[in-house]
Amino acid sequence: MQKQHSGVTITLAYWGWKRDTLKSVYLTYIRSIIDYPAPSWQPWLCPSNTKTLESAQNKALGRISGQHVGSPFGSKNLETNTPTYQTIINRNCIKAQEKGLRLPSDHPRNIAFTTNVPQRVRRLSCRSKAKELTQQLGIDITNRKPITLFPDTAPWDDSSNLYIYDTVPGVAKRTDEQASKRAATIKRIDQLAADCDYVIYTDGSASQGRLNGGAAAVITIGTAESPHVITKLMERGRALTCSYEEEACALELAANWMSEHCAPNTKVLICTDSKSICQKLNGNSILIADLRQHLFSVPGTITIQWVPGHSDIPGNELADEAAKDATTIEATPHPISYSSVCSYIDQMIVDKPFAHPRPNQAYHGKSKKQEARITTRADQVLLACLRSGKHKAFRKYQHALDGFTDPSCPRCQAPEHTLEHWLLECPGTREAVYRSYGFLPTHLGVMSSHTKETVALSRATLLAL
What we know:
By secondary structure, the chain is of the alpha/beta class. It contains 20 helices and eight strands. The protein has helices at 19-34, 47-65, 75-80, 85-102, 108-114, 126-134, 178-193, 243-261, 275-282, 289-297, 314-326, 338-348, 357-362, 368-371, 377-388, 395-402, 419-425, 430-437, 446-449, 451-461; strands at 2-5, 8-11, 162-165, 198-207, 211-222, 227-236, 267-272, 301-306. A hairpin with a 2-residue loop joins β1 and β2. α1 packs antiparallel against α2 (47-65) and α4 packs across α6. It is globular, with a radius of gyration of 28 Å. The model is unreliable at 1-12 (pLDDT under 50).
C-alpha cells in the first residue's frame, strides 16, 4: 500500500506502525462494526456471504502483516494471530449464549436463549448453532456464575479501612535479582506488620492455568522470616478458571475469616502475589465489585500488599502449597465465570489445519517471545513474506509476477528457487544456515522458533543476491 505525501511515494507496508498496533486499529474500527450485533445475523449466513467477510478481513490482514497478494490462505491469519471468519462467527455465537444465560432471567438476552420459539424455516439460529458448538468444548460449562450488571457500591465510594499497595519499595520489576527482591519484600512486610494483629498470605492455583482451581488463605502472626501459622483456609475452586479468579477467591476466604474473628479495632495485613488484583481494587473494577464491597464491610483495618511471587517468601510459599492442595478437595466446584468460559472458548474453537501445507509448517512453534525479538516494521514484513513464501527475492515468485525472470536457483541451478529450496535444500546455503541456527533444519517451523536468526540469514544469503 502506497501513499503520496509532499511529492514523495511512501511504502506503508515497510515502515511505520508495527503489526500489533495495526491490528488494534483493525479490531477497533473495522471488526467492531462487522460484528455488530453478530449473533443475530452471522449464524444465518450462507457460505458465499461468509466468504465475503473473509475476503474483507484478508485485505485488512494483508495491510497489517505486509504479505503480498497471493500468499497461501491462512498465512495472514497465522501471522497476525487472527482466526478465519467462520471461527470468529462460531466464537461470537457461543459467547452470546454464555452471556445471555448468565444474565437475569427477565433480561431480553436471557429470554432469547431460554424461550422456545417455533421455527418457521429449517435454518440455523444463534441458539441452535451455540448448542451444537457447546458439545465440542469437551467440558461441562452449565454451572454458570451470574453476571453482575450493577455493583452494590458506586465506583466513587471509598472506605477508610482499606489500603492497597501494588508496588514494593526497592523492587523495580519481576526480573530483579532474587536476593535483593526477597530482602526488599521481607523488609516491607515486617514494616507493615509491625502495626498489625495478623498477617494473612493468600494465593490461588489452577492446573494448566485454567482447570481445577483452588484457593487458600494462611493466617499468621510473627515476622515475615518466621511466620507462626494460626490456621489455613482452603477451598475448591472452579472446574474452569484462571489464577486471577482463584486469587480473588482467596481474598474472599480472608475476608470471611476476618468477619468472624476481628473487631473494629483489629488491624490485618494481607499479602498477595497477584498485582492485577491490587490494581483492579485500586481502579474500582466492576469485575471484582463484590470482593471490594465485602472488604469494605469487614470490621477492622485492612492493608493489602502485593508481594512478588516465587521470591522465597515463607508465608507466600505456605499459601502457594495450600492452594495447590485445595485443588484436590472433594467438593462441588464453584460456578464458572463468563470471562473464564470466553477464554476457554477461544482455546477450543480454533481453525483446522489449512489446506496449503506451508502456513501450517512455517508457523509451527510460533511464540510471543520469539516474535518480540523482531523490533522493526521492516523486519516484521520481511519475516512475514518469507514465511508465506511470496517474497520477490525468491526467483520462482518473481517469475510468476513478471513472466521473464529465470525461476531457477542462482546458487545451485535447481529448477525452482522457492522458500523450501532456499532454507531446506540448497547446497549453496547449507553453511550459512548452519552458522545461523547451529543445526540444519528439516522443517519450515524454524522460521518461527528462530525469528531473528531467520531475518539475518535472509539478508546474508537471499537479499544479497
